[in-house]
């Protein structure tokens, strides 16, 4: 079996960059490819959002041979293997935006050469590998499994998570043929300590969709139980912690202001979109994704309810939203519910500011921009809404605010009597 000693990684984002660093740390020559020169410049300046261990890897890799960054897509042919690590977002109508992935795959097929191993890591619908790589390669005259090798191994990177690292998280791998799987395993086993091989790319693709749909359904359930607990004047976190003492049959999920980032708000919609073609019903998944999409509005309703209990209306109320990244510890506002919540509060007449020590500026859905408050004081606002609590920062000033609504359900200074 030919040895793979060099890998090109298409896409130097939240998946591609840690993937490239992991490969280089494992002794593989890496060519990191991204069409955005600003992104490449930021990587060279080390001005990127990574966990501390990967920041150290980046500093080391930039000073060594065998780690190169480029915007030249034609250089794909130089590598023994190529990994596709581009985003798969949804549009404003929650339909898959396949443009980035299709463009990357079209380019890869164009420059593919005999002997290469091509691995799709982006999350997408079942059959993506076949449609975007296998069939076009066959049309070019390649024989899959003989003169070129194709596999799917969906990424499992959790940005900002230092507990479940890429190396320690098993990877699912499915090749078109047994030889495709064996060739791709040379690459994936550098990145992950365990590899779970499945019979086809389609199984690997569905596995990733199932993983994130599972999370989406359970988050929607946790949010619903938080609403139920509020009506019964119970603390939902106390209930969850109690249920989590059961050593089997229960997994703790926590309520919040909404979900964001690259996975949960997007991936299940790839499944739902594909099921329209097969006319397969998925009512549970569909309802969960509807509930997730409506969660920001529920939070705005909660703020309005808290004000109503205090005999106040929304118009002219000064509101400070605390934290706008989609999760703690990351510099990422993609699909963050905070942006919808800010817009929703403003639409109802509130005067809204935000404070996030990690995010200096955000762009709202209507295109307007906002800058973070620099040194907040609780007395400057009528109400503080806690959306994301960034680790290592002092929020003691929130105690001086007349009203505080905790959308995280775990902020120590929150008034537990506030309605959901």
From TrEMBL:
Keywords: NAD, Oxidoreductase. The keyword Hydrolase does not apply. Residues 320-413 form the UDP-glucose/GDP-mannose dehydrogenase C-terminal domain. Pfam families: UDPG_MGDP_dh, UDPG_MGDP_dh_C, UDPG_MGDP_dh_N. InterPro entries: 6-PGluconate_DH-like_C_sf (IPR008927), NAD(P)-bd_dom_sf (IPR036291), UDP-Glc/GDP-Man (IPR017476), UDP-Glc/GDP-Man_DH_C (IPR014027), UDP-Glc/GDP-Man_DH_C_sf (IPR036220), UDP-Glc/GDP-Man_DH_dimer (IPR014026), UDP-Glc/GDP-Man_DH_N (IPR001732), UDP_ManNAc/GlcNAc_DH (IPR028359). Belongs to the UDP-glucose/GDP-mannose dehydrogenase family. This is Nucleotide sugar dehydrogenase.
